[in-house]
Write a structure and sequence with these properties.
The structure is a single chain. This protein has 247 residues and is of the alpha+beta class. It has one domain: Reverse transcriptase/Diguanylate cyclase domain (Alpha-Beta Plaits, 2-Layer Sandwich). 57% of the residues lie in helices and 15% in strands. α3 crosses α4. The two termini are 30 Å apart.
Length: 247
């Protein structure tokens, strides 16, 4: 791994743009009691947790991120990822928030609502110009409004309507599963599903036994979540390959 991840990211971003490949723009906001209920006093802690999640994402999956995540408008955030990594990236942020929740009840856990737009990278979307591009931000706002209107925590828009329909169903399933994750289940999922730890390594990091980790992953339906995310990666590769210009 390079000792200069920012230089690696700039080089990757430039290469993707020059090749007219696609990027995934992720726009999100805090969701759950810390934003929608009376617990506004918890907002600074939640924002701090988000910033911690961005750092962890950069360390654990540096090749996934094209443009680093940043917070804007108090509790909203955005960043750019490789399309194949967009679902993983969104789920890492959501899982990280739930794993750092100050309450144990799943229904009261911290969470985020994230809209993902996959589009062309002909103009470097991670550049300063793209960050202030009004049309891109308006599209992101409209996608977030769709997510709010449906009560969804994940919403995708891609260049392929058939894939959008499939992702709507997959994201609805993921929402239903993640909404039931307790803090211990989210901690286990973060390490084993998203960060690639073994159960033994996760047990050591969390100070519990390996059977406890196995039980938490089973209750979190971790295998089903991994299967859905693998299906997403495969679908993106297939659709992108079929529609990419031939050299």
């Amino acid at each position: 791994m390079s000792s200069n991840p920012e230089a690696m990211r700039r080089q990757r971003q430039q290469g993707l743009a020059e090749a007219n490949y696609r990027m995934a723009r992720l726009t999100g906001e805090l969701a759950g009691p810390q934003r929608e209920g009376a617990s506004r006093s918890d907002l600074p802690h939640s924002v701090s947790t988000l910033e911690e999640a961005f750092r962890a994402l950069d360390e654990e999956r540096p090749t996934a991120i094209v443009s680093p995540f940043r917070i804007f408008r108090s509790d909203r955030f955005r960043g750019i990822a490789r399309p194949q990594e967009a679902l993983h990236t969104a789920m890492i942020l959501r899982t990280f928030l739930r794993s750092r929740s100050t309450v144990s009840a799943a229904s009261s856990a911290r969470d985020a609502r994230i809209a993902v737009e996959i589009g062309d990278a002909a103009r470097p979307q991670g550049s300063a110009d793209a960050e202030s591009d009004g049309s891109a931000l308006r599209r992101a706002d409209l996608l977030m409004e769709r997510a709010r209107g449906s009560g969804r925590r994940l919403q995708f828009a891609t260049p392929w309507p058939e894939l959008d329909s499939e992702l709507d169903a997959e994201c609805a399933l993921l929402d239903a599963v993640v909404a039931r994750w307790s803090k211990p289940q989210a901690e286990a999922a973060l390490l084993c599903v998203w960060f690639g730890r073994t159960q033994k390594q996760a047990a050591r990091e969390l100070g519990v036994t390996q059977p406890a980790i196995a039980q938490r992953l089973g209750a979190a339906h971790a295998d089903a979540v991994k299967a859905l995310c693998a299906r997403y990666e495969h679908a993106i590769r297939v659709y992108d390959s079929a529609s990419s210009p031939r050299g």
